[in-house]
Specification:
Elements (H helix, E strand, L loop, with lengths): L3 H7 L23 E5 L10 H10 L4 E5 L25 H11 L3 E6 L3 E3 H6 L21 E3 L6 H16 L4 E4 L25 H25 L4 E4 L11 H7 L2 E4 L12 H13 L3 E7 L1 E2 L5 E5 L2 H13 L3 E7 L12 H12 L2 H4 L1 E4 L3 E4 L2 H6 L9 H13 L4 E4 L6 H4 L4 E4 L7 H12 L3 E5 L18 H4 L16 E4 L14 E3 L15 E4 L23 E5 L2 E6 L3 H8 L2 H14 L6 E5 L3 E8 L3 E7 L19 E6 L7 E3 L4 E2 L2 E4 L2 E6 L5 E6 L1
Parallel strand pairs: 1-2, 1-12, 2-3, 3-6, 6-7, 8-9, 9-12, 14-15, 14-16, 16-17, 17-22
Antiparallel strand pairs: 4-5, 10-11, 13-24, 18-19, 18-20, 21-22, 23-26, 24-25, 25-31, 26-30, 27-28, 27-31, 29-30
Bound molecules: zinc ion.
Length: 698
């Protein structure tokens, strides 16, 4: 019997019978490409149905989403308050599109939108709609003729089922989808009679009720989908990555199709939003299908729905989608003049989709071979109140960037999924200020560390339970060997420093200095024996005459490092992940990278060496193994959009693989490369990467 580390080295750490190793057998698991032209009310007189279906067929999509909707009907509905498009006349646009797609062997998902309805419905069914504190129906912020419906109302159990059943009775559809539901972004604040009986919106108690309602409706709609045929199903709109409003673990347990509505980056977001979303989907879907909607439209703020974003930007979003294990999905809005007035994205998308179609077995993943897990902390994202002026997402941003800079292979795991079965494949679990951790989650992390796993924690990790109740001591105090010794200290002028007390592998490369930057905020912990870094408290930054330490030396640790058998543990009392992101300070990112390398003993299932900022994924695939390289070396990395790509040079890849490798193909370059196999590892060089490369090992 090999121990866990030997298994990691051979890349066999996951039992082959685990859920994640079993590809989804049902038809959504076989979908490789998806297309959608989102209808506007005007499209019944604009859309060229044949050109529409022909375009999607030329992209080799398996499925199209076609609008039934709940706001504007595109067929001759008889459901009261399902208002037909004023341009529909006596046509059946939905039926025509459905037939045109089916004729080409493309499946159809009926797209509905339960989130809004018109004033006549408000008058007839006041109970369907969200209410403000004065009890008034809330007009939609963009078009005041529309009113948001309430998730807890009978709109969801009467009106929506009537539409689903009507569509099922009239057409051969393969499934149903709800756009605009479950509630997206912030929790709804509704004061209707139903909602007044619920816990206060924004609390964990409200979240319980929201999850209960969403998944009971999900089950209801799924059962209605199946009334027509057993293989039909329902799925809802999710997205927003780690900020999703419903419990993602439950989504993973429920969804055959994870529809991530995260269509592109806006303004000053970093490049990797799609890849990050893919990691979220991977964590909860466990090998079941997930797809990321790529909006061809301008996803910036303000938006332009009918003009496309830059082609390199959209293409990089699609590349991240497939690299991170999701199915690519192209989304166009509006069919003015036949297929929309902006055709600039049509051909590049066709080329990209056709390229993936040539290599489907290499994009059909069995499992990630990463050996590092990052806990995504959904409750922390939803309920944690970080120090003033900070955002819960910045802790992840900083760690994510450090992981990319260090070229680590990592997965996300959900905080409700920390059992040994999930964590045993990982050499280290990272907790980027996962402030909210329940007793059970702490117990699972403790068990993981006791079994030899390594841990990184920062700042207020585990200081709150899963109900957002503050603990008197860190939930993982014993695991990290720490004791809370005060309250959060912020910065006024110079932030605190970390004084180097002794050499250690986490300080690799830091020479010629006694000090490193600390962080903007810290929660002091009690002194430990033989500290590696100690805190030099912050002081005045201006005037420079006063910019010197009044207390140059303390015993307060700036990092606590412990070892217990195979398990290594690193605790940073400062929010170094977030401060690294906010300041861009290279020392902080380097310190995180060094620490992760120490935790994992420098061991990695695959390594990619070369110049440039690259995001890497490595998968066991249907065909063998694949290493995906996304080239983010671009002046528009941190602020969109990409104007062009900046190619990088040779990347040396080493991957540990059981068994024999017969061929290494570069799927973008369209060439084979020589390789060398020895001692369970395969080595080869990718001569260069323009935007994206996939090294496929058969
Ligand atoms: Zn309500």
């Amino acid at each position: 019997m090999m121990d866990r580390r030997t298994l990691l080295k051979t890349g066999l750490a996951v039992p082959l019978l685990s859920v994640s190793a079993t590809p989804e057998a049902s038809w959504p698991g076989r979908i490789r490409r998806i297309g959608q032209l989102n209808f506007t009310e005007h499209d019944p007189v604009e859309l060229n149905v044949e050109a529409w279906a022909g375009y999607w067929a030329s992209l080799k999509v398996d499925v199209v989403l076609v609008s039934v909707t709940g706001i504007i009907a595109y067929y001759q509905t008889k459901v009261p308050f399902h208002r037909r498009s004023r341009y529909l006349g006596d046509r059946d646009l939905f039926g025509e599109c459905c037939a045109a797609a089916k004729k080409r062997g493309i499946r159809v998902i009926a797209r509905t939108s339960p989130d809004l309805n018109w004033e006549d419905a408000v008058k007839a069914h006041p109970e369907w709609f969200m209410r403000d504190e004065e009890g008034r129906a809330m007009a939609h912020h963009e078009d005041p003729r529309l009113f948001p419906t309430c998730t807890f109302s009978t709109y969801m159990t009467d009106y929506m089922p009537a539409i689903l059943r009507e569509v099922n009775s009239l057409y051969d559809v393969d499934g149903f989808f709800t756009n605009g539901w479950p509630p997206y972004g912030a929790f709804p604040a509704c004061f209707c009679d139903q909602c007044r009986r619920l816990p206060k919106s924004g609390t964990p108690e409200y979240w319980d009720k929201l999850n209960e309602r969403v998944f009971s409706l999900w089950k209801l709609y799924d059962s209605i989908a199946k009334e027509k045929k057993a293989e039909s199903f329902f799925f809802a709109n999710i997205g927003r990555a780690i900020h999703a409003s419903v419990n993602l673990k439950q989504v993973g347990a429920t969804a055959q199709w994870f529809q991530a509505d995260n269509q592109g980056r806006a303004n000053d977001a970093p490049m990797w939003g799609a890849a990050l979303q893919g990691r979220v989907c991977g964590a909860v879907q466990k090998g079941k299908m997930s797809t990321l909607v790529t909006g061809a439209w301008s996803t910036c703020d303000p938006r332009w729905r009918n003009v496309h974003k830059s082609v390199p930007e959209a293409q990089m979003w699609l590349s991240q989608t497939v690299a991170s294990g999701m199915v690519p999905y192209l989304h166009l809005i509006g069919a003015e003049t036949g297929l929309g007035e902006d055709h600039r994205m049509l051909e590049p998308a066709r080329q990209f989709f056709n390229w993936t179609a040539q290599h489907d077995p290499h994009f059909t993943n069995k499992r990630s071979i990463a050996n590092i897990a990052v806990v995504m902390g959904q409750r922390t994202q939803l309920f944690y109140a970080p120090p003033q002026g900070t955002s819960p997402s910045q802790y992840m941003d900083g760690l994510y960037y450090a992981l990319l800079e260090g070229r680590f292979l990592f997965d996300f795991v959900h905080e409700d999924d920390l059992a040994a079965e999930t964590l045993r494949k990982y050499a280290a679990v990272l907790l980027p200020n996962i402030a909210l951790l329940g007793d059970e989650q702490c117990r699972q992390l403790r068990a993981y560390a006791d079994a030899g796993g390594s841990l990184l924690g920062t700042f207020e990790t585990g200081l709150y339970d899963d109900r957002n109740q503050r603990r008197s001591e860190f939930g993982l105090a014993d695991v990290f060997g720490i004791r809370k010794a005060g309250e959060v200290i912020g910065t006024n002028g110079n932030a605190f420093y970390a004084r180097i007390e002794r050499r250690h592998p986490i300080l690799e490369g830091f020479t010629n200095t006694n000090l490193l930057p600390g962080a903007e905020y810290r929660l002091p912990v009690a002194p430990v024996n033989g500290p590696v870094l100690t805190v030099v408290p912050g002081y005045v930054a201006y005037p420079p005459e006063l910019s010197y330490p009044t207390q140059p030396h303390t015993t307060e640790p700036a990092v606590v490092l412990t070892e217990n058998g195979n398990s290594r543990r690193a605790w940073f009392p400062g929010d170094i992940d977030r401060t690294s992101w906010r300041t861009g300070h290279t020392d902080l990112s380097q310190l995180l990278q060094n620490t992760i390398a120490w935790l994992t003993r420098g061991d990695a299932p695959a390594r990619v060496e070369g110049e440039g900022l690259v995001e890497t994924f490595a998968w066991e695939t249907e065909a063998g193994f694949a290493v995906h390289l996304l080239n983010y070396t671009n002046p528009n990395l941190h602020r969109g959009w990409l104007r062009r790509f900046y190619p990088i040079g040779a990347q040396k890849v080493t991957i540990k693989i059981p068994g024999e490798v017969k061929r290494v193909q570069l799927l973008r370059a369209g060439v084979d490369v020589p390789f060398r196999a020895s001692g369970g590892a395969v080595e080869f060089t990718v001569p260069g990467v323009v935007d994206y490369e996939v090294a496929a090992l058969s």
